Amino acid sequence: MDRLRRDFYRRSTLTVARELLGQRLVMVVDGQRLSGLIVEVEAYIGEDDAACHAACGRTPRNGVMYGPPGHAYVYFIYGMHHCLNVVTEETGFPAAVLIRALEPLEGLEIMRRYRPSRPDRELTNGPAKLCQALAIEMGFNGVDLCTGEVLFIEEGRMVAQEEVGTSPRIGIKADELAMSVAWRFYLRGNAFVSR
DNA sequence: TATACGATCACCT
DNA sequence: GGTGATCGTATAC
User: Fold this and answer.
1) CA of A108 vs C1' of B5, distance in Å?
2) Would you say A140 and A71 are in contact if contact means Cβ atoms under 8 Å apart?
3) Straight-line distance from CA A79 to C1' B4, in Å?
4) pTM score, two decimals?
């Protein structure tokens, strides 16, 4: 399978978010592939987006978002969870796509070990859940998804426009504009989309 | 140095 | 549908 190249990420964040649906996120653990189809994402775009981590300017925490496209932005939240984003647009402009849910494809046995006593449907149907299932933590913040051998994104399957649903982003507290724009994209009817 | 809170989840009712 | 867990950040003092 072909790896997504940097030009894919160096585009409008909404375009990248929409086109990430149906691609395959891959993590290699001890030579074993853990992977899943991306079925739900959210776009966070620039310092003018009140819900974006860059809304208050650049800090050590969000610095990766200001860097070159095609890198992983991983952050720690609520004292116990990790979330994975991919950096988009030109270097210097802070924007990223949050990966919210996957449909598991490879390495289910290992994912079940990382998320014990959970039904398969709940392995990767949330941004922090998929990080736990794929063993993604702060060590992956800033890694290059275009050249790395451990964490990367491959071409998946084609997604028809009619298959794509949109909605406001989930779980954010910000101004009215940020809370109302439909910057969440998901595959309609997919069992692994969160709620 | 101190404090408030969050791009969530799990478990309870 | 409501709430507690739990701690790194950002911001204020």
Assistant:
1) 35
2) no
3) 14
4) 0.96
The parts of chain A modelled with pLDDT lower than 50 are none
User: Smallest CA–C1' separation from A77: which nucleotide?
Assistant: B6
Residues A110-151 have pLDDT tens digits of 999 999 999 999 999 999 999 999 999 999 999 999 999 999
The bases of strand B with some atom under 7 A from any protein CB are: 6-10
What's the per-residue H, E or C state across chain A?
A: CCECCHHHHCCCHHHHHHHHCCCEEEEEECCEEEEEEEEEEEEEECCCCCCCCCCCCCCCCCHHHHCCCCEEEEEEECCCEEEEEEECCCCCCCEEEEEEEEEEEECHHHHHHHCCCCCHHHCCCCHHHHHHHCCCCHHHCCCECCCCCCEEEECCCCCCHHHEEEECCCCCCCCHHHHHCCCEEEECCCCCCCC
In this structure, are residues A184 and A170 in contact, taking their beta carbons and an 8 Å threshold? yes
> Which nucleotide is nearest to A61 if distance is taken from CA to C1'?
C9
What is the model's pLDDT at position A195? Answer: 79
